[in-house]
Structure formats: C-alpha cells, structure tokens
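Good morning C.,

I know you're traveling, so I'll keep this short. The sequence:
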Amino acid sequence: MRIEFTKSSRKHRISKGRALWVIIHTASELASVDGRTEVKWIGKDNRGLELEIIGVIEEDRVLIVHVMPYSFRRRYDKEI
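The tokens, ready to paste straight into the viewer:
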C-alpha cells in the first residue's frame, strides 16, 4: 500500500523520512472516525524524537494528514 503525505502534514517541519521511520518501526492503532478508518502511530524516530502520526486509510493508499512531535500533544492536553 502506498504512503502519501498531505501538505499540512509537514506543518511542524518533520521530514517524510523521519515519519516513515516511525511508521515502519512502531505498532499502529486503528480507529473508525466519521465513517473512515484512521491509523495512528506514536513512537521515536531515528534521532530519538517522539512523534505522533495520523493517517487515513483509503482504497489504495494511506494518506498521512498529521505529523507532530508528541511533546506538543502533551503540552496541549495540559492546557485544556
């Protein structure tokens, strides 16, 4: 299955290579959201930075829509 990245997935300036490292080397979680299947990875890249990656599973590809350092998520969750 092909893996493609949206332009918005690069918002936090994490390279595709670093995101692919996490996708290849960590287990994923599947969830059904609004009738579509999403896949999520949380793991350390080859430089030790923990990333959160979210993709949408389509017929012939996984479309990566979000790549962010996981520390940003924890900071956001504390503010809420």
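Safe travels,
E.
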